[in-house]
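So, who can interpret the following?
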Amino acid sequence: MRIVTIIGARPQFIKAAPLSRCIRQQHHEFLIHTGQHYDAGMSDVFFDELNIPKPDVNLGINTPGNSAQVGQMMLALTPILEAQKPDWLLVYGDTNSTLAGALTGALLKIKVAHVEAGLRSYNRDMPEETNRVLSDHVSTMLFCPTETAVANLAREGITANVHLVGDVMVDALLQNRARASRAMLAAEGLQAGGYFLATIHRAGNTDDPGKLKGILEAFAHFADRPVVLPAHPRLRNALEQSDLMVSPNVRLVPPVGYLDMLGLTQSARLVLTDSGGLQKEAYILGTPCVTLREETEWVETIELGWNRLAGSDRARIIAAVEAALASAPENHPDVYGDGAASERVVNHLMSFQ
């Protein structure tokens, strides 16, 4: 098989690492990096740490604005895909790179395979929700991480070529767990279980001063505990353009690589995040989580008691953190798979008729 893979953002680099390795054992992969995440801390370090092959093409497209970004990506992808003539076009997740790849492939009559299909937050104000829904509906084959995702697709009338394979991020985590770095703990003088780990990157939080203020005030409430906050460029920009104060217990650090993030997540007492991937990684690593959103696509983490939705309200975040610290769930099933999702994906692509 000849497969073109399109990636462009941090979560996609992680997902692509185990699957790319599996594809290249028997097949040819042409890797396109859209450039959506472009700086060393959000891109290069992941390729280095996870041994992802160097992209065959880097489009270098990081234009502000969702529609402009998707449009420019589609224009750039079209001649490349026409020249490559792949058997499959592989896209991951829910970013602008995902949507641009899926739409371009569908318009060029190339079979599109969507990894991490079927997730739904049911919040159409999030561009990620639009991206994942549209990508699912133009894809030929859909690879779901959970039974919930399969059921979501069925409710939308998508049942053909839908496969429950597990989550490729579990593959990546299990393959790299033993390599998790404790360098950040040493550098920041942190003790395992003695700090919170936080991330804030979604536009709904960073671009709304009121919401960002509520989140930061909640962090400040836990003044006796360090809150390690790797700062996404969007958060840095929001803080620079506002008069919001960051409490002394909040340690703003640059974006960290995958192995550092694994180490920080598994040693944290609790995670506070608006990231989808980090909610799931926290669950897999057995770290309680409070999600700084009103909904999540990873509903299993909520149902099993390992995650709590708190939005951006100060009081709700504090209450959710205190509840999470007060009790730990006993049940921790492997709802996201067994680490063999990549092999299942390749086998389904090979057997498609």
User: Anything to note?
Assistant: The first helix runs from residue 10 to 23.
